[in-house]
């Protein structure tokens, strides 16, 4: 069964924003699958959400909270060793894919640890390869990946700016329509900043790529 999945990671989480975004995205029924990654369990508690699956090495979640949810028969707990190959958020994305997620939204995946932020942004590739629409969202940004084609409705855009950054070393044949700065069959290389701070000027913006993968970052400021 294909389900819309929300992952709550253990990074910074703005409860007011997160609550509004979840309601806007999923409606009154909420997401069909909720997975928490380690300290993301605390975020779920703050938001009043009950996870279907909580996982991680549990090295950064309060013991009392952990015990509270482990007593709940409706919550599946999967504990991993502290010394492992993948981060807790990585394991959460793998689990979402294995559970048949049709969409994945990741909250709590940004913060002051830039190594974790960069690693979490890279996890969008897992969703892309699986053919699952995947986004990483905080109160200022929505981050996705595009390999071939993406459209963004102006009325549904997140913030005022759209930046395109290469994920692969080379991204070739980039065509942009409906943007303030359009492109036709342009090439980006890793380390270039040409794609920063574009703006949508038409009701529908379109991104096409011949080869490679781009980050699509919509920002409010």
Question: How are the SSEs placed, and which strands pair?
Answer:
Elements: E1 3-8, H1 15-26, E2 33-37, H2 40-47, E3 53-56, H3 63-70, E4 76-79, H4 88-98, E5 101-107, H5 114-122, H6 124-130, E6 133-137, E7 141-146, E8 149-153, E9 161-166, E10 170-177, E11 183-189, E12 204-208, E13 214-219
Parallel strand pairs: 1-2, 1-5, 2-3, 3-4, 5-6
Antiparallel strand pairs: 6-7, 7-13, 8-12, 9-13, 10-11, 10-12
Q: Kindly estimate the percentage of residues that lie in beta strands according to DSSP.
A: 25-35%
Taking the sheet with the most strands, its summary is: 9 strands, mixed
CATH uppermost class of the largest domain:
Alpha Beta
The 3D shape can be described as elongated
Helix content: 10-25%
Uncertain runs are: none
Q: What series of H and E elements makes up the topology?
A: EHEHEHEHEHHEEEEEEEE
Distance between the termini: 38 Å
- Domain count, please report it: 2
CATH architecture of the largest domain: 3-Layer(aba) Sandwich
Class of secondary structure makeup: alpha/beta
Oligomeric grouping of the chains: single chain
Tags for this model:
single chain, 221 residues, alpha/beta, Rossmann fold, 2 domains, four-stranded antiparallel β-sheet, 6 helices
Please, could you describe this protein's structure?
This protein is of the alpha/beta class and 221 residues long. The chain folds into two domains: 137 residues, Thiamin pyrophosphokinase, catalytic domain (Rossmann fold); 74 residues, Thiamin pyrophosphokinase, thiamin-binding domain (Jelly Rolls, Sandwich), CATH 2.60.120. Helices cover 25% and strands 33% of the residues. It contains six helices and 13 strands. Strands 4-3-2-1-5-6-7-13-9 form a nine-stranded mixed sheet. Strands 8-12-10-11 form a four-stranded antiparallel sheet, with no helix packed on it. The longest helix has 12 residues.
